[in-house]
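Journal club prep — side note

Before the paper discussion, L.F. wants everyone to see what a predicted structure for a comparable chain looks like in token form. Sequence:
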Amino acid sequence: MRRKSLMKVMRAAISDVLETMFFMTVQFGESRCTLQEWFFDKQVLFGATISFNGPSSGSLWLVAPVSALNEITANFLGRGKDEISDEEKRDTVKEALNMIGGHGFSLFGRKDTFTLGIPRSIEGLTLSENIQGNPSKHTILIAAGHNRLAAGIEFG
């Protein structure tokens, strides 16, 4: 399995899942942009990570600022932004990543079998403290409406 193919499939999965399950139109950002530039340094980010095994092994991650998670969770649950809890936001970002990973790996077909682990929360990250800002060919910058998210794949 080629890593470039996996990135292409994950972009398709991100678009499909965010548009279908979260009612958000997706566009992808310039991959040379750093995460600090994409998220405006010092923004607090929340997200999730999930491991995968198969022809390649590693982990997927998805992060977003709280404002984006408010909208994503409200859209997913069909409630107002002021009616959702922090726990629901954490659960929604984990579920979003789980759906993206499952859908993305299913697009490879039967010959490449992958298994996903259990999604775990990534909480309270700030770009300057915890996330490397250098662009990576395995990072996907996502514009969903007026929100910005980022996803990535780390190979083990």
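L.F.'s comment for the group: The beta strands are 26-28, 44-53, 58-65, 115-116, 120-126, 139-144, 147-155. Keep this in mind when we get to the figures.
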